[in-house]
Amino acid sequence: QYHSVSSSATGSGAKAGYTGPIDCAMKVIKADGVFGLWKGMAPTLARDIPGVGVWITSFEFMRRSLSRPGEKTPIHILVLSGSIGGVGYWLTAFPQDTIKSIMQTDAQGKYRGMFDCARQLIKEGGVTRLYRGFIMGAGRGIPGAATTFT
After folding, report:
1. Does 53 have pLDDT greater than 70?
2. b/e per residue 117-149 (b: at least 16 CB within 10 A)
């Protein structure tokens, strides 16, 4: 993906023009300093820590509820349980994923941090602004979640 970062992703109005991952890292460091390589890390952790917790908890709850104790869990139960876990993950994680993505592409420095970003997004479109694109994101993520534990 580093080969084709467009002006809409960088917000700069011009192609980023990376020739590879090293070139990309060097240009990020030159523009934003070494900490630019970790831009968006706090929202990523804020997304994944609770999201993965809900995913695994939901998966295990469904697997145990639908399986017979002491027997090997059938694959269809694993897939269904993983799907339910994936729904739980994305319901929990999607607002933070939105914040993370917006912060990582904020070339103008509009946001002072993840809380400021969340506040501005909610002011712009209400809480539902944090779930814009949810159907597509969850639709992409749930099949992966369904098959992870099989």
Report:
1. yes
2. bbebbeeeeeeeebbeebeebbeebbeebbeeb
